[in-house]
Amino acid sequence: MIYFQTKPDAVFEAILKEAFASEASEIQLLSDDGAIDSWEGLYPETSQRLCPYEAVRVLVQLSAAVNDSRVYRLTDLHWLVLYEALRNFCATHNDLLDDFDQHTRPVGDYKIGEVDGEALVTIYFWDTDFLFCNRKETWAGQTSNPRQCADIEESSSEQDAAIIALEPVDELGWIVREPLFQSGSTRYPDFGEG
User: Fold this and answer.
1) Cβ-based burial of 162 (10 A; exposed 0-12, middle 13-18, buried ≥19)
2) CB neighbour class for 63 (10 Å; exposed up to 12, middle 13-18, buried from 19)
3) Which one of 64, 122, 137, 143 has the fewest CB atoms closer than 10 angstroms to its CB?
4) What pTM value is reported for the model?
5) How far apart are CA 185 and CA 183, in angstroms?
6) Integer Cα distance of 162 and 160 in angstroms
7) Boundaries of every domain in the chain
8) What is the DSSP pairing of strand 72-73 with strand 167-168?
């Protein structure tokens, strides 16, 4: 599990799992096709720090953390990738709703209508300082230059060393909210409005 500001509910975990899987697949397709402009367009902040292959490895780390019973603290780099992956997933999910009956799509065990990505950031993220770090290039543990990733001939251990490991958290201090998705909800989060 990822250490968010607010303890994730089952719906948010399902969104994360699908977002990580679909975005990793999308990035892999873009990189295999050599569509670097598309990669940079979809991940404008992440692409300044990582090549597509490194971003996929970060998404795999995040996916493993979501599926683990232990709770992990993310680095700014992980937050950045998570932020852009979640933003892209929400946009794609919301764009596809017209193609589904009742304007809901299956996400894990749930049928979800509109997903408010900005609300998710407000509810779950501690802050968005990682965006400032990226723009000011003030990273702790700088990874490789994304422009040098065109020739990925390094050994996998060298590639993995460029991605910082997640740190387990022993003492948790997160907010526990009322459910944000209830029976009959068609949007997430659902604050009971309208």
Assistant:
1) middle
2) middle
3) 137
4) 0.86
5) 6
6) 5
7) 10-168
8) antiparallel
